[in-house]
Design brief:
- The chain is α/β, with parallel strands linked by helices.
- 42% of the residues are buried.
- A nine-stranded parallel β-sheet has the order 9-8-7-6-3-2-1-11-10.
- It contains twelve helices and eleven strands.
- Helix 3 packs parallel to helix 5 and helix 11 packs parallel to helix 12.
- The longest helix is centred in the middle third of the chain and has 19 residues.
């Protein structure tokens, strides 16, 4: 009988040990001070496509990847606003849960992305928000069939847009059990446009900062998650030869001094350059920085080497993109770039 008295205590001991080991066995994502080795996924729009991508996760983890930014946009089976689902079979909650769990089991942090403000169309296709709610369009009635425009944008001064988009963000955070969120925000060109009834003549920098701060208040202050965004609209290109794409020539760059400094900035540069001044500028302003490259191996390596030479703790690591489906296990910029990142 005495032996049986100790069984409950012994069982509790085993339970505690089991819980402790299960929570410490797998470290998810980069730890404090550890280099981010991140990849950006785009173009996977159904559960079936997500399952195929999932098969590469263990190997990517072996290669050294520890962070995934998954751009999902409207390709999700939203419950709050089913009218905003894109495609016949968008990604489901079950599919996203499964993918996120596979990432975590392999030590990879998963960060969903939803493109905000800009990129509300591509070529002739306008995306669901502005199709279902055309009065949310920043330039309503202008640019029929999206001709003469890069991408449509939503109206940053319409409070109804935020309330709707924030509900979508909340669903994606829950679906991926995420502790960070990427809001996009690149290549925004129409703030203050003469074609925009609500923002015509207004300061693009102030408008852009308002949009960022609205999202920050919801995501960081409200949900307690980290916020990431692209950096091109915050990098003033007037004194540099980076052009209108990788830097801002339309007045949005002044927003850099109007937004919280704990946002993670992802400045993207795709060509080989002698220097990448956006990186030290963002660091000096107090931001953490995650430089981003694309398909050119030499440019990718140059950007990584330049970032490493800065030797600053706010330099997080590197983000690799392909801007479409690709064989990530044979993607040369990733292979060669990881060698430099792991060499440290």
């Amino acid at each position: 009988m005495k032996a049986f008295r100790f069984l409950p205590l012994f069982a509790c001991f085993l339970f505690i040990v089991g819980c402790t080991s299960s929570t410490t066995e797998i470290k998810t994502g980069p730890g404090p001070g550890e280099t981010w080795r991140a990849v950006h996924f785009l173009g996977y729009e159904t559960d079936r496509e997500l399952r195929e991508l999932e098969k590469t996760i263990p190997k990517l983890a072996e290669m050294g990847v520890n962070t995934v930014i998954f751009e999902i946009d409207y390709n999700f089976n939203f419950n709050s606003h089913p009218e905003l689902r894109r495609g016949a079979s968008p990604i489901t909650q079950k599919g996203s849960h499964r993918f996120a769990e596979t990432c975590r089991k392999n030590g990879i942090r998963i960060i969903p992305e939803f493109q905000c403000v800009g990129h509300q169309s591509w070529e002739e296709e306008t995306f669901p928000l502005l199709v279902e709610f055309p009065h949310f369009d920043l330039t309503p009635g202008a640019f029929p069939d999206n001709t003469g425009i890069y991408c449509r944008e939503w109206d940053v001064l319409n409070p109804q847009v935020n309330s709707m988009i924030f509900e979508l963000m909340d669903e994606l955070i829950e679906a991926f059990n995420a502790d960070a969120f990427h809001v996009g925000m690149d290549e925004v060109f129409l703030l203050g446009s003469e074609h925009s009834p609500s923002t015509k003549g207004k300061d693009p920098g102030e408008l852009y900062a308002k949009a960022i701060n609205d999202m920050y208040n919801h995501l960081v202050k409200g949900r307690g998650v980290e916020m990431l965004m692209w950096g091109d609209r915050l990098f003033d290109g007037k004194n540099f030869e980076f052009g209108r794409w990788e830097s801002s020539l339309n007045g949005t760059a002044s927003a850099i001094d109007m937004i919280p400094k704990d946002i993670i900035i992802c400045p993207w540069h795709y060509e080989k350059m002698k220097a990448y001044p956006s990186l030290p500028i963002f660091i000096e302003k107090g931001f953490r920085v995650l430089p981003t490259s694309w398909r050119k191996v030499d440019a990718t390596k140059e950007l990584i080497l330049y970032s490493q030479k800065l030797k600053n703790p706010k330099m997080l690591g590197h983000l690799f993109t392909s801007w479409g489906k690709t064989d990530w296990l044979k993607y040369q910029p990733l292979e060669e770039g990881l060698k430099l990142l792991l060499d440290k």
